[in-house]
Amino acid sequence: MPNRIIKESIGTSETLAQLTAAQERHFWRILVQADDYGCFDGRPHVIRAKAYSAMLDKVSEKVSEDATRYLRDVGLIHLYVVDGKRYGHIPTWDKHQRT
Fold first, then answer.
1. What are the DSSP E strand ranges found in 31-94?
2. pLDDT for position 7
């Protein structure tokens, strides 16, 4: 998995400012799951397992999925289904990442 560079513009992001601390943490944990095109496995159990592997006893699948849906609702991620499998994409990936 490639490393990610976080830009200082996160401090002035109006979209990130809409999130609770837990929702923002969820966003960063999804961000590091994304491939070089900003795509990730969007299945709820996979997001939770990858994002919270060291704290599965503290974050339920419902809490993780609620945060994922909120990120979708504010436009930070896009969720879509192909052949019955849910995937995700970070729409501003190309704007904020160097590949």
1. 39-41, 78-82, 85-89
2. 73
d(CA 86, CA 40): 9
Could you list the beta-strand ranges (E) of the chain. 39-41, 78-82, 85-89
User: Which amino acid would we find at residue 8?
Assistant: E
Is-contact 16 9, C-beta < 8 A?
A: no
Confidence of residue 8 (pLDDT cuts 50, 70, 90): confident
Are 37 and 23 within 8 A, CB to CB?
Answer: no
Listed in sequence order, the residues at least 6 apart from 89 whose beta carbon sits closer than 8 Å to its beta carbon are 37, 38, 39, 40, 77, 78, 80
Q: What is the pLDDT of residues 30-80, one digit of tens each?
A: 999 999 899 999 999 999 999 999 999 999 999 999 999 999 999 999 999
List 40's β-bridge partners, or say none: 88
The C-alpha atoms of residue 36 and residue 89 are separated, in whole angstroms, by: 11
